[in-house]
């Protein structure tokens, strides 16, 4: 099966040029001017940007949390991702106490089996790592699960102590793996939360008021210090604020291999969301919380100058009516997380490129290429090059759309960006050469997504 994309403006993290792309059996086989073949399928990309499929390295489909589970499963969540131009996700499997790492991954294979619409990999959240289980990390790495998330937050649920973090960093880095850190001082936060509740402060806004930026900065500082002691790289997930970013900047300026992602919610929403009437603020109960507006400029600066490398979504939706409701009388019982997997590309194009904050190449780099490099998928994913998977998005930089629960495809009853007008719309999506989205229709099949055995961490700049 041959497909030819004609007349496109190809934009990668480093290039920007006009050429045709010939695809055969799911791979890019030729890039050139006026390629002279008679393909099975012709796609005219005139007026569109032709960019690598987006990679969202932080999603939580069906994550069990706070007595419920994230409302998107691997079918609805990956279909919504495809609509927005994301062709790869890396989701988080969870190891519960007493489980082997293999048991944990197997459980997530069962959840995803036959459901995913795009390609996917797994990180593994480790919650129970006694010394005799540490070697299992190396086994995971051999099986293509090459990154692990550890939590400094949520004592009693996910939190692991500093010694465990240090040992896990050492063990995984010896085998070429990477630790992703949820960096917040969860023990101190818990003390602040308990005090707030004792004072009768139960509304959603207290979620934000009990998680100070300094608690995140302290976590980032400690994560980086432990990584330096262990001689390991570290990747900070969902970095939300300037205080935390300062710690990453300091480390990177010293040559420490510290990396970090931020998410659209921290770039486009501010803490006024918690002042919405009634229980509305619960829609924005996620961790870290949405910060004061001035932090946004600092995050954009970090993205521009590569102190932040990646945009993920931390997609972890819970329906407002039934699930967020669990914390109506106690903000600490509101399931943490929000929806976002569908609109990452449009939001970042609109807020970044269209507003002149980042270049087109940088847009591609932070939404696709950098994640591919950091998480062992490059050059199969994250670029448009001969030999790469034909994960390609035709993106209209001029079209506008209004984000709304009325037109989104995520399985959740609200949008965090309701009514926001964005310029830059995904029109056509190819995943391994197959057109899976075109003209607002999903043309793929559930279960077509392939599990990606990822390579080792390979230290980008
Ligand atoms: O609120 C969030 N972020 N929920 C998902 C779990 C996590 O910490 O990433
Ligand atoms: Zn987290
Ligand atoms: Zn997360």
Overall shape: globular
Quickly count the helices.
12
Radius of gyration in whole Å, from Cα?
21 Å
Low-confidence stretches: none
Binned, the helix content reads 25-40%
Q: Beta-sheet strand percentage?
A: 15-25%
Total count of strands: 19
The main pleated sheet reads as: 9 strands, mixed
The CA-CA distance between the termini, in Å, is 37 Å
Bound molecules: N-(aminocarbonyl)-beta-alanine, zinc ion
Category from helices, strands and their pairing:
alpha/beta
Average predicted local confidence, pLDDT: 98
What does this protein look like?
- This protein has 461 residues and is α/β, with parallel strands linked by helices.
- Helices cover 29% and strands 23% of the residues.
- Strands 1, 2, 3, 4, 5, 16, 17, 18 and 19 form a nine-stranded mixed sheet that branches. An eight-stranded parallel sheet has the order 6-9-10-11-12-13-14-15.
- The longest helix has 18 residues, at 213-230.
- The radius of gyration is 21 Å and the shape is globular.
- It binds N-(aminocarbonyl)-beta-alanine and zinc ion (2 copies).
- N-(aminocarbonyl)-beta-alanine (URP) binds next to loops.
- The site of N-(aminocarbonyl)-beta-alanine has 9 residues, from loops.
